[in-house]
Structures are given as C-alpha cells and as structure tokens.
Amino acid sequence: MDKLVIGLIGEKGAGKQTFNDSLQKILKNNKIQVVKSGEMLLEALNFWDLPNTRANLQNLAIIMDQTYGEGTVSRAVKTKIANSEANIIIFDGIRWQTDIDVVRQFSRNILIYITAKAKLRYQRLKERQEKADEKTLTWEQFLKEERAKTETFIPIISKQADIMLDNNGSIEDLGTQIEKVVKNHSLDI
Length: 189
Known about the structure:
Layout: E1 4-10, H1 16-26, E2 32-36, H2 37-47, H3 54-68, H4 72-83, E3 88-94, H5 97-104, E4 108-115, H6 118-128, H7 139-146, H8 149-152, H9 154-157, E5 163-166, H10 171-184
Parallel strand pairs: 1-3, 1-4, 2-3, 4-5
Helix pairs in contact: 1-10, 2-3, 4-5
Protein name: Dephospho-CoA kinase
C-alpha cells in the first residue's frame, strides 16, 4: 500500500507538535515519521554555528528560495518523504504553496490545518521555549513575526486544507478531534 503523507499547516504555537504526538499514540502500530522543513534549516544554522532563532530560520528559508529558486526547501522535504520507509509521513510546518504541491504529489495525502487564537499561541510559545528567543519573546515581537514572509501565506494556503482542527481548547479536546480524523478518514494503515 502507498505511504500516506499528511501535510500539517498551522501558525506557530497552534498545536502541530501536539498533533504529531497524539497521532503517534493513536496509530502506535504504524511506522510514522515526522519531517519538518524547519529541522533541515536548523541543521544548517547549527552547522554554521548561528543562533537558533525564529528570525534566522525565517531568513534562511527566504534566502534559499531567492538564491536557488522557489521551493528549494520543499524539494528537499519531498526527497526526504520519498526516501522514507515509514508508512505514514507527517510534513509538519507547511508554509508555502510549493509545500502543498509536494504533499499532493503523493497518491495518498491529506492536508490538515490546525489553528488557535493568537494570544493562546503566544502563551504556548512562551511556555515551551522551543526556539532560543522564545523565552524573552514579547507580544509585540510575536505580532511582528506573524507578519514575516514565512508566516503570511499560512492563512491563504490553509484554505486548501481537507480538514481544520480548532485548538483553542484543551489537549484532550484536540485529541478527540484527531481521533475523529483518524476514524473518518481511514488514516490507520
């Protein structure tokens, strides 16, 4: 059977990692791989000994596209997905139309958009401190980052999602929504 590619769209702090963790628990008998374009960019920053900040990640993605053509990072993700031995691959962090095009190239695919209110997402970022600059992130900085080129397409491309998950509630609420998606869309392989 063909591998299933799940494209995950969502603003920062919307709950993409929670989705990944929940899906892996629900579908524990499947081999699932999460592919993040941001991880490839992070590897480059680490290699060059540059700080792991959201601004550096955003700038690197833009520079790659400007230098090597639109969809450079998307093509790298496509290669990683194609070479994966997992039967379910989650492309976490879709930001561009070229990312959606990659997902849609696989015969079994689904696009899921996870969203939450900005204030709640800001609070989550402050709590998780995944990026080096999130500990000291102000509300004003958060709003400025929301206007970055890598973020502004999310509301536009989210309209192409097959499913929308509202993550303004508890983790349990999101888990219930994910269980329904698995059941209603036969995601269990």
